[in-house]
Hints:
By secondary structure, the chain is an alpha/beta fold. It folds into two domains: 7-42 and 284-388, Aspartate Aminotransferase, domain 1, CATH 3.90.1150.10; 57-282, Aspartate Aminotransferase, domain 2 (3-Layer(aba) Sandwich). It has 13 helices and 15 strands. It has helices at residues 42-54, 64-78, 93-104, 119-126, 148-155, 178-190, 219-223, 232-235, 250-262, 270-282, 284-308, 334-345, 371-389; strands spanning 29-30, 87-90, 110-113, 131-134, 138-140, 143-145, 160-166, 194-198, 225-229, 243-246, 313-314, 322-326, 347-348, 350-351, 362-366. A seven-stranded mixed beta sheet has the order 2-10-9-8-7-3-4, with helices on both faces. Strands 11-12-15-14 form a four-stranded antiparallel beta sheet. A two-stranded parallel sheet has the order 1-13. Helix 3 (93-104) packs across helix 9 and helix 12 packs across helix 13 (371-389). It is globular and about 60 Å long.
Amino acid sequence: MKNKNSEFDRLTDRRGTYSYKWAVAEGELPMWVADMDFETAPAIRAALMKRAAHGIFGYSELPKEYFTALADYRQRRDGYRPDPAEMVYSNGVVAAISSMVRSLTAPGESVLIEAPVYNIFYNSILNNGRRVLSSDLVYENGGYRVDFSDLEEKLARPETTLMLLCNPHNPVGRVWKSEELAMIGELCKRHGVTVVSDEIHCDIIRPGVHFTPFAAASETCKEISVSCLSASKTFNIAGLQSAALVISDPALRYRVWRALNNDEVGEPNCFSMTACIAAYTECDEWVAGLVDYLFENRAVAEEYIARRLPMLRTVRADATYLCWIDISEIESDSVRFTERVRAATGLYLSDGAEYGECGRSFVRMNLATQRERLFDGLDRLYRAVLEIYGGPEAK
């Protein structure tokens, strides 16, 4: 492995740090919520320590460098530079999505998603009194695709006014092609539907695969959409709570900005700004190493499961550090499966039912951990499956 003995192999004990992921019993191994076990980039830690040494942490204003640093970083990553003048700050992507569900739709209207999809999308819709409408992705030949006929039928419904797009897709790991995004954009414009594109995982892309931002797919996509960007996943700084929205249409941008401020989720804090500027300006080499390591982890997990647990099937993925595993050959209920695996071995996975009913026979495993812990998790999964479900001893 290229990154053997790298900084990503260093084990860091996260217990006792108020970690949401690691709030588990002694001996349990959490591989569920999308939170990496790696320390963030050295340049970010240094910038935060310098800021902390100042000793005063009062109200902050957003510096212009925040948006320009992000725009330049995205140019280097994707070949597409969003306009800093079209950016709006938010405390986080989830806070922004919830705010936009409230401000861009009316109670009782439908918000379209593509299940199986990030479970918090459901919360943002239902908690705000809107209806979830899913155009389920089609699972075939070990991967997923959009059912464009079904998508158009549901976009055409008069009560459908907003679409939440996951680009790249969590949990299935699809990197949508430019032509797919352009087609989604055309359908949404035709039927008067605004698109909110959650692009929080857009840096975790398989080397050699190109990620297309939704707004870059066509002028139509750009004019009808809000793109949600954040350093939280790439740099493991979700706890600092910072995001940026890119909105080209001035009227839409004002409407979103007004709602964010009404909801009081548009105020920056000094540490998030400091961390993000360092991330976007000083950490390109670190990100490259991280991505290599994560896709080596994916290769390890896929090979292990194919060899030792052939009754399970991993879904092809070119994005995220999340492995979507088909358990349908041995179990139809992922909730029961994950509970039994955790009780037997302490391995904590996400049940696929969280992401929609069409995910009920899948589980999600977070691969963003040290290789040593990854093998521990895979061994626990192996032991649990053989103990609970039986089957031939694998090689």
